Amino acid sequence: MAGRLTGVMSAVVIALGAVTSSAVAAATSTDESQIRQVVAAELAALRALDPTAYAQNFCAEYRDAYEAWVQRNITPPPFEDLEGANPKRLTSVLRTNFPTVSDTAIQAFVDAATEGDREAYHQAWRGILREEFSHYSYRVRQVHVTGDQAEVTVQATLGKASGTVPWQFLRESGDWTDCTAPPVTPDSAPPSLKGEASQGLLGEIGDVRAAG
C-alpha cells in the first residue's frame, strides 16, 4: 500500500498497511481453523453413528437431507432379508464390502443373522460400522475462501483407498458450514466420502441364501 503513495502520508500508510495485513491474515487463519473443526466434527459424528450430530455441520439447505442420508446408511438391511442366510455367502459379501472390518465383528453379524437373533443382529451391524468408520480419516489439503463461501479440498482415506474430494462451505450467521450437495445415490455410498466410493450390502444380498 505504501508503494502507491508518496509524501508525508507514507509513514501513516505503512503503519495502517501493517495493521490491515495482520487483520486479514488473522481472519483467514480463523476461517481455516473453523472449517477444519467442521471437517473434524463430521468425522467424529460418523464414528459415533450419530446422524443428528453429523447434520449439524451442514448448511440449512442440506441439513435435513444429510441427517436422513446418514440414518439410511447406518440402518442394516432388513432382518427378514438375511435371517437364515447361508453363512459362507454372507461372510463373503461382508468381507468384500467391509475389508477393513475384523473377522470377529463380521462373525458376530453372521451368527446373529443365521441364528435369527434380531437384537444381536442390530448390535452387530453397528459394531461393523463403528470399525469401518474408525478406519476413515480426513485431511484438509487446501482452503480457498471467497467472502462467505469457501472451497475446501479434503483427502478422504479408508484403508488403502484414498481420494481427494472438493467440498463447498458456506458461512451462515457467522459460522462456517459444509454446504456440499448430497450425493445423487446416497444408499450406495458412505457419507464420509460424499459419494466418491461405493460400498454396502444392499446391492448384493440377493444370493446370500444360496448353497455353497
UniProtKB/TrEMBL annotation:
Residues 182-212 are annotated as: Disordered. It comes from the Bacteria. Keywords: Signal. Residues 1-25 form the signal peptide. This is SnoaL-like domain protein.
